[in-house]
Amino acid sequence: GAVVSQHPSRVICKSGTSVKIECRSLDFQATTMFWYRQFPKQSLMLMATSNEGSKATYEQGVEKDKFLINHASLTLSTLTVTSAHPEDSSFYICSARVIQGAYEQYFGPGTRLTVT
Amino acid sequence: AQKVTQAQTEISVVEKEDVTLDCVYETRDTTYYLFWYKQPPSGELVFLIRRNSFDEQNEISGRYSWNFQKSTSSFNFTITASQVVDSAVYFCALSEDGSGNTGKLIFGQGTTLQVKP
């Protein structure tokens, strides 16, 4: 089956620093990757849609200058949380959509970010 | 606007009981896809099923079964003879298929299932 990895799985950083999270599709190519955010005991909220070679499309209310997304290749998308604050602490999950096939998205294991 | 409602926040059952998780959706699209995902304590989402709007056939996979009814905009999920390993948060999700075919998923709030031994 299709595998998506995320790195790191957990990260703790100090307030004001930036953190980069990588999302990789390991055995398939993905023109589209999605970034979700999940607060404790809540649902997943889509942050942005990332298309290879073009600018990401952000959902309403998501600060594009704070959450920088780069989809440089068909197997890698990165999310950088800039100038992180404690309220950015959350579980960040990416998913990758296969090129062929209908609508399957494969999710990464998630990255737990804690900002102190 | 698209919306997915999982009215049951938490369900607790004893092992071997059957349990049904409800999912009601709203969409203006005539073509759409419905999904169920399982999120165990580890956090990783596990894909369970995808159903398109033109296929109302119910599906059974082992102890899992799904009942899709367009007339009531529901896509309910039943676990038969539940096991402790079924304990997790279950999410129902909707994907539009309008112009652009973005593939965006709209998730319900999730139902936490606890299966006690």
What does this structure look like?
The complex is a heterodimer of chains A (116) and B (117). In chain A, a hairpin with a 2-residue loop joins strand 7 (67-73) and strand 8. Chain A is an all-beta fold. Chain A has strands spanning 4-7, 10-13, 19-25, 32-38, 44-51, 57-58, 67-73, 76-81, 90-97, 105-107, 111-115. By secondary structure, chain B is an all-beta fold. Chain B contains no helices and 12 strands. Chain B has strands spanning 3-5, 10-14, 19-21, 24-26, 32-39, 46-52, 59-61, 64-69, 74-79, 88-96, 105-107, 111-116. In chain B, the strands form 3 sheets. In chain B, strands 2, 5, 6, 10, 11 and 12 form a 6-stranded mixed sheet that branches. Chain B has a 4-stranded antiparallel sheet with strand order 3-9-8-7, with no helix packed on it. In chain B, strands 1-4 form a two-stranded antiparallel sheet. Chain B is globular and about 45 Å long. Classes of the chains: A mainly beta (116), B mainly beta (117). Chain A binds chain B through residues 32, 34, 41-46, 49, 91, 93, 95, 97, 102-110, 112, and chain B through 33, 37, 42-45, 47, 50, 52, 91, 95, 97, 102-110, 112.
In short, what is this structure?
The complex is a heterodimer of chains A (116) and B (117). By secondary structure, chain A is mostly beta strands.
Topology overview:
The complex is a heterodimer of chains A (116) and B (117).
Chain A: E1 4-7, E2 10-13, E3 19-25, E4 32-38, E5 44-51, E6 57-58, E7 67-73, E8 76-81, E9 90-97, E10 105-107, E11 111-115
Parallel strand pairs in A: 2-11
Antiparallel strand pairs in A: 1-3, 3-8, 4-5, 4-9, 5-6, 7-8, 9-10, 9-11
Chain B: E1 3-5, E2 10-14, E3 19-21, E4 24-26, E5 32-39, E6 46-52, E7 59-61, E8 64-69, E9 74-79, E10 88-96, E11 105-107, E12 111-116
Parallel strand pairs in B: 2-12
Antiparallel strand pairs in B: 1-4, 3-9, 5-6, 5-10, 7-8, 8-9, 10-11, 10-12
